[in-house]
Design goal:
Radius of gyration: 26 Å
Strand order of the largest sheet: 2-8-7-4-5
Helix content: 10-25%
Largest sheet: 5 strands, mixed
CATH superfamily: Cupredoxins -  blue copper proteins
CATH architecture: Sandwich
Mean pLDDT: 84
Strand content: 25-35%
CATH class: Mainly Beta
Length: 167
């Protein structure tokens, strides 16, 4: 046992000898622009979910104008999309939500609940059933406040929120 302890102590001493040069890593200070370090900018990453109770988990999202937005939308419920489908639809300013929702219901599944070839839409996900996820990427619009809804029939009354875009 004593021989073992001596051998271990010698190994530790020898292992700590030699070049102890510390590796220098670049630092990023708070408020520093990533472009200064050569790292690419990432844009804005947002997450939103809808459940079987016809609710989004958030009713307000934020982004900066011109940035790439990557939105992950999850249907965290269990019901099939034919019964309790959900999507994320970001509407252009001035869009009448009730009118859009009525047109979406008329278009139905064949048009993925997006009427008029999406002329009133900035971005949207696919209609999802329970347990499904969709990820979309789009450019943040001009500064302002934009409505988002679920366009499944009857859902826009409860499943709505705003995306606030700043400069």
């Amino acid at each position: 046992m004593r021989t073992y302890l001596i051998a271990t102590a010698i190994a530790l001493i020898l292992g700590s000898c030699g070049d102890t040069k510390k590796e220098e890593k670049p630092t990023l200070k708070i408020g520093q622009n990533n472009a200064q370090t050569g790292a690419p900018t990432m844009g804005t990453t947002l997450a939103l979910s809808g459940n079987d109770m016809m609710q989004f988990d958030k009713n307000e999202l934020m982004a900066k104008s011109g940035e790439k937005i990557t939105l992950t939308f999850r249907h965290v419920g269990q019901l099939d999309k034919r019964v309790m489908g959900h999507n994320f639809v970001l509407l252009k300013p001035g869009t009448d939500i009730t009118g859009f929702a009525n047109e979406a219901a008329a278009v139905g599944e064949s048009g993925d609940w997006i009427p008029n070839d999406g002329v009133q839409v900035i971005a949207h996900t696919q209609m999802l059933g329970g347990g499904q996820t969709d990820v979309i990427t789009f450019d943040a619009p001009e500064p302002g406040t934009y409505d988002f809804i679920c366009s499944f029939p009857g859902h826009s009354a409860m499943m709505r929120g705003t995306l606030t875009v700043t400069e």
